[in-house]
Design a protein that fits this description.
Two copies of one chain form a homodimer. Chain A is α/β, with parallel strands linked by helices. The first copy, chain A, has helices at residues 10-22, 35-44, 54-59, 75-84, 99-111, 126-134, 153-159, 175-191, 279-292, 295-318; strands at 2-6, 26-31, 49-51, 65-68, 88-92, 116-119, 141-149, 196-203, 209-218, 221-228, 237-241, 244-248, 256-261, 267-272. In chain A, the strands form two sheets. Chain A has an eight-stranded mixed beta sheet with strand order 8-9-10-7-11-12-13-14, covered by helices on one side. Chains A, B: One of its GO terms (molecular function) is nucleotide binding.
């Protein structure tokens, strides 16, 4: 299957490198508003196509699937054009601004008999899958603390008066959208849709959240999610059951899983798997779904995407964090 | 100054041992409803008095100050009898059920020209005092995660159908009162009274909270507190500022302080101080206040006690966790 890309930033480089590592898609070319940048990116990875017109990409007979990694706020309009033209799409997280967009895009994908995926690497890793399998060992779950607290060098620029995309509501930025999405995916993949969502953000002068605490309330279980782009911590994330707790090293790069028994308090390694680029797992899974036309797995992922997006939208809107695409 | 005790449990043993270690008070005797237990405890620590009548203890001319470590729900009625009889009181945390009791007890203490202290060891330790001094290094504070997640062996009994005091609303038990009080003291000693309190507890069948997440909202800063008696974690507690984060090993036994710079991400030890019994610091501070008649330090501690109690009361009542003494 022939893959093209939208976006020329670091994450697109990483994605195409991982695609090459897996060999599951053939990279054929890149789109950028700048023809020169598109050509440069395409050349770098051995593609023979480049596009500076989105319609040309959408209508190309030499492309089957497009990876979209433009600024968040542009995802929806670009993805819709691609789906309508019969292209499969892998859209970088966070997929869209709100559930309205999601439902509309899904409808278009179904009408055009193509697949729409959200790229989110953490829940596709082997260590996460081990966690999913081992979770019953913890007994009755009572609490979880899932965190992703990464100081962004762009916050230095922000403090100097320069608001980059990721700190801008115009581009659907903020800590929850950019980082909170990882621990939220972990929570919702493991525990399902919460009964109640309450977000306590620190709002920056630009209008987005620089950091915050999300409380996800389930029946007899509370999951607390922390995200921040303006402070730093390497503290692990944990899930606490009555029989013991699971600890993961990080909620976006899930590489190590440990277990602590509630009674004997001994820490025990469960799984460890370091891979320089853990995007290979999501790429492999998307390729499997496409090759096997695996509707069950597809709908599972799609529903997960929707619940995560719904949770983020609820959390934002509780606090008046609004994006341009929210305005109907 | 001659000290007597109420309560014969483990914590009272630890307190009297620490008193002996400091030499700041003379242990003279013990009270218990059981004359035999009182005598046994008194003998064990070289006291020559024992009481099975609270009035006898209150009216004894051989006692100046009483340490109260009875079940939480009994604190108020016992403390009031002692204060009215002109005894100073050190009452184990959590001091009372609610702010009404606190204000009434304080009024009685003032009228009788005696001091009323809440025993809470964590904020009196040298490492905590270093944290207080070093805090400005973190820059603008944005988030904190303070936790105390200790599986209680009494939860095994609870699961077997036996509700002990600490899991009973009748004795003003629960995770927030018993454990949450430590991280709440850390939060309020460092950051002051929160603008908003929101508690998300897991309520047990007995009516108290087995665990929960408290969100303390400050201006541009969110402190998240977790406590549990039904799960286990040894994860550290952290305070995140824009310049870097402070990490303490534990929020009740504060023995180690570390710093992580937000930019270079290097972990750096700041202070470490292991003391088998860190109660010696609170005992020393109470003795200093009494000897020097240090009203300033006394009122600082007293106000801190009141704000912590008010916060716990707000958190409980939001969730219908009510104690017998709440009924007016």
């Amino acid at each position: 299957m022939r893959l093209a890309t939208i976006g020329t930033s670091r994450i697109t480089h990483q994605f195409v490198k991982a695609v090459k590592q897996t060999g599951r898609f053939d990279f054929v070319g890149a789109y950028s508003r700048s023809e020169e940048k598109a050509k440069q990116f395409s050349d770098e990875f051995g593609g023979n196509l480049n596009f500076s017109s989105l319609n040309d990409l959408a209508n190309s007979n030499s492309v089957d699937i497009v990876y979209v990694a433009s600024p968040n706020g542009l995802h929806f309009q670009q993805v819709v054009v691609l789906l309508k033209a019969g292209k499969h799409v892998i859209c970088e997280k966070p997929i869209f601004s709100n559930v309205n967009e999601f439902d509309e895009a899904v409808k278009i994908a179904d009408e055009n008999k193509v697949y729409l995926f959200e790229a989110i690497r953490n829940i596709q890793t082997p260590v996460f899958k081990t966690l999913q399998q081992e979770l019953p060992r913890a007994g009755k779950l009572r609490s979880a603390v899932l965190q992703l607290i990464q100081y962004s060098s762009r916050y230095d620029q922000f403090l100097d008066g320069k608001v980059t995309n990721i700190f801008s509501p115009e581009f659907a930025g903020g800590a929850l959208e950019d980082l909170g999405v990882y621990p939220l995916y972990v929570a919702i993949a493991l525990f399902g849709e919460p009964e109640k969502v309450a977000y306590y953000p620190i709002k920056l002068s630009s209008g987005v959240d620089g950091s915050g605490t999300v409380v996800l309330a389930y029946h007899d279980f509370i999951c607390t999610v922390l995200c921040s782009k303006i402070t730093y911590s390497d503290a692990p994330s944990e899930i606490h059951g009555e029989k013991g707790s699971f600890r993961i090293n990080n909620s976006s790069n899930i590489a190590r899983l440990e277990w602590i028994d509630a009674h004997d308090k001994v820490l025990e390694p469960v799984a460890e798997h370091f891979e320089a680029d853990d995007k290979i797992y999501e790429i492999g899974n998307f390729a499997d779904i496409l090759e096997q036309n695996d509707k069950t797995e597809y709908l599972k992922l799609r529903n997960l995407s929707r619940v995560v997006l719904k949770t983020m939208e609820t959390a934002r809107k509780q606090n008046g964090i609004l994006f341009p695409n929210d305005k109907d």
